[in-house]
Specification:
RanGap; Leucine-rich repeat, LRR (right-handed beta-alpha superhelix); 27% helix; alpha/beta; Leu-rich_rpt; LRR_dom_sf
């Protein structure tokens, strides 16, 4: 990591290296003010812990554009540190958090920080999110100017607060939304319809592996006629 600071490396892959929280200060020293590194892949390690904050603090002064953190055993308690890393960050465009467990009260911190970040692609698939996360997701995407791709696949977003997420979708700039395998039912179709009706940016919507059969499915199809969607997967 000390040598990284003077190298010209643009992509560093440390996938599945048994790195733990104790490695975070060293990772931080490597990326802090590094002028060339653009992609950092830390997938399938175990970075959860008190020193994760060091890595996130260094992220704010790095030039990293893509950060991969899938399957790092990160929990809701990591969300405030993640929030500090992306808040007002000028370079980060892609953040992959899939396969962690982010459900909890601090998830809202991450979503609040999203509103001032420059992130264009956020992957939150298989992060144990439930309906109670939908208001926080809504606050994160509402009027966000940069987010274009949001992956929420393999969560469980069915419930009364799903309507909050769909209401926020109408004013977001999202172009691709993945809701694959979210236990959505026919009762969700009314909210989905309100989300896509007259939406000006959404082009791709994936609703595969849900259970949308029922009388309200027609609401979704009716809204499709006035949306800008080019690809719908059901």
């Amino acid at each position: 990591m000390a040598a990284l600071t003077t190298s010209r490396i643009e992509e560093l892959i440390l996938y599945s290296n048994h790195l733990t929280d104790s490695s975070c200060p060293h990772l931080a020293s490597g990326i802090r003010n590094n002028q060339t590194l653009r992609t950092l892949n830390l997938s399938k390690n175990n970075l959860e812990g008190p020193h994760f904050t060091d890595l996130m603090a260094a992220l704010t002064t790095s030039r990293i554009e893509e950060l991969q953190l899938p399957y790092n055993r990160l929990t809701d308690s990591s969300c405030p540190q993640l929030a500090s890393g992306i808040r007002n960050n000028q370079t980060l465009r892609t953040l992959n958090m899939c396969g962690n467990n982010l459900e909890g009260p601090h998830f809202r911190d991450l979503m609040a920080a999203l509103t001032t970040s420059r992130i264009e692609e956020l992957q939150l698939d298989n992060t144990h999110l439930t309906d109670s996360s939908c208001p926080h997701l809504a606050s994160g995407i509402r009027n966000n100017q940069t987010l274009r791709i949001l992956d929420l696949s393999w969560n469980n977003l069915k419930g009364p607060h799903f309507s909050d997420l769909m209401a926020a979708l109408t004013t977001s700039r999202i172009e691709k939304l993945q809701l694959y395998s979210n236990y959505l039912a026919d009762s969700s179709c009314f909210h989905l319809a309100s989300g896509i009706r007259n939406n000006q940016t959404l082009r791709i919507l994936n609703l595969s592996n849900n259970s949308l059969e029922g009388p309200h499915f027609r609401d979704l199809m009716a809204a499709l006629t006035t949306s800008r969607i080019e690809e719908l997967q059901v």
